[in-house]
Amino acid sequence: MPIGLKFQREHRQLGYHIKYLYYFFARRDVLQKRISYGGMNPNDIIYLIKPDFQNGVEGLLSLLYKQIQEYCKGGILGMIGGIAAGIVVFNAEKERLKKNISRLKKQVKDIYIFDNSDVSDGDYDGVTYLSENKNCGIAYALNRIMEQAKADGYKWLITMDQDSLIPDGMVHGFEESIRTHENIGIVCPQVIDRRRTYLQAEDNEAEEYVNFCITSASCTSIEAWENCGKFDEWMFIDLVDNDFCKRITLSGYKILKLNKWILDQEFGKITPKSERKQKFWVDVSKILHNQNFAKFSYKKSVSPLRVYYTNRNIIYVNKKLNKYGSIGYENYNCKGYLGFIVSFMIPSILRAQDKKSVLKATIQGVCDGKRSKPGEWSAEI
Asked: What pTM, to 2 d.p., does this model score?
């Protein structure tokens, strides 16, 4: 006896409903719409299987039963639509990137790379390689990766930097949390730069909802990405994640941070000063309750290009989302534009080796930010 027919006979009511649900959603072409004149449901619309297909019911039920079994075997991945990974690269150190890819392959099936380098190099096995042979910006690259993942049937994507190494088991941990929480737009780990001695990881495994996370090692719902308006490609780089996270939460989604998972992420090119100087500036920051002073414990290479985009985009994004409160200042441990000037603008100029270029980039960024005309964005929850 076919297993589907056996199941239907042992569980008559459930088997009956499964059979008609299957026909109703998957094979509407074999149903006949009729009006019932019976005593139990007079004048109700009912659906009957066409006579020509009656003989195949047992076989179809067997097939359906097997499909249900396979679906259940898929576990969480089947329920959430699977997780892929995407990496945006720019003049990447090849061996480091291959190590990143190798570690990702142990946890996800498909990996997408968008190369923002001027000269493309697709010499990476087992990945989908995308490139336009120019630097299109982080936001543009992330959108193209998201589109490709969606086209391949994925519903979630972990975005990685080229030099970030994902902790073992993290993807499975994300899957569990996605399955057990509602309205999740992003799941993210703790992120810490261990070179900066004043930063300490939270020593607990708590879960918490947050308002912001960086894109690196974050797992984003492709549905949420679409509904909130995707990444803003005009921004190019810097504060792209602040803008995106703000729109994610305003669109009714939550950002879930899992402190159990810790990503060691290098932010910028820095060189720690002597232990004595590090301790001095960290102590000053604690006394004054201002972490900005701890940044003097290391030397930083200041890029005029990044200074330009930061100064431009902090103005742009606060124009764009001004009716929803300030945004982006939390990156610089301040609450408004005056604090931004003190904590980022002035130190960038003072710490730069080429102060003239950085000053010029700062002025140009401020002017372009003030001239920018972002389209008005409204939350639709």
From this structure: 0.75
